[in-house]
Amino acid sequence: MSHSTSAQDHAGRVALVTGASSGLGRAVAEELAARGASVLLASRNREKLAAAVAAIEAAGGRAAAFAADMTRRADIEAAVAAAVERFGALDAVLFNTGGPKLGSFLSLTDEDWLEGMDATLLAFIRTVRAAVPVLRAAPDRPAHILAILSSSVKEGIDNLTMSNTYRPAIAALIRTLARELGPRHILVNGVAPGRFMTERVVEVDRDAAARRGITEEEARAEMEARIPLGRYGRPRELGRVAAFLMGPENTYVTGQTLLVDGGLVRGL
Ligand SMILES: NC(=O)c1ccc[n+]([C@@H]2O[C@H](COP(=O)([O-])OP(=O)(O)OC[C@H]3O[C@@H](n4cnc5c(N)ncnc54)[C@H](OP(=O)(O)O)[C@@H]3O)[C@@H](O)[C@H]2O)c1
Questions:
Q1: How many folded domains does the chain comprise?
Q2: For the chain: N or C, fewer Cβ within 10 A?
């Protein structure tokens, strides 16, 4: 991590980051901590969480770990409470968790759909419901909720049927939440990544390669060729956008879902 040039614009703030032990969630946690926030990192795997916290502390940041499964309401509520207990307040929440199971429409059962909903839409609903009563917000100092979604909010992705369904549902809910929570000075937004180098994207590329009888490298090269910037994103590039949307500089953007995709999606 090299964050020496980041401003301390999150100093004095407390953030909860879920799905924080690797990939995009971890990158957001690192960015917030580098900018001075105290960050509670929550996800299931204690070893990965400990490594992420150690990296933040080694870089001079303030962080703690909390084991939580985002498919369980009690764990979500406990994570929110733990952030307040550990750091004394809560100013911002990054909602993130693993992507739903891949699969075509005809391959998915009712159980798959219910599990996928628990892991995405319902997890977001539960996180917002738990956080709203404790978020520290005032007219000149709004609180922030940000969800990591997917470019599937704008354009469906082959074989990601549940992502194509539940992520746009969350984006729609974000617009409604912005209206209901605006008077409480809580700003709610989403970020929609295109392709970033993480474990999840390796899984998606492997799936595309297997379905099409090509190698993973070929699948990735094809995708990179479709991205105007010609490469997958680096997790920190999403972290910086999140740090703005979740930070004190953002006093007037709410209800939006912002694509961070190197230009991949062509639609509005
Ligand atoms: N990378 C991309 O280009 C891309 C593009 C579009 C959308 N997305 C979406 O962005 C999100 C993050 O993706 P990523 O690429 O960073 O994936 P990743 O590297 O696989 O990381 C996923 C994170 O979520 C945590 N997690 C998974 N299931 C969880 C659960 N039930 N409860 C709590 N934490 C859970 C994992 O930690 P534990 O194992 O410790 O629980 C891990 O920290 C995913 O929803 C993904 O579908 C990613």
A1: 2
A2: C
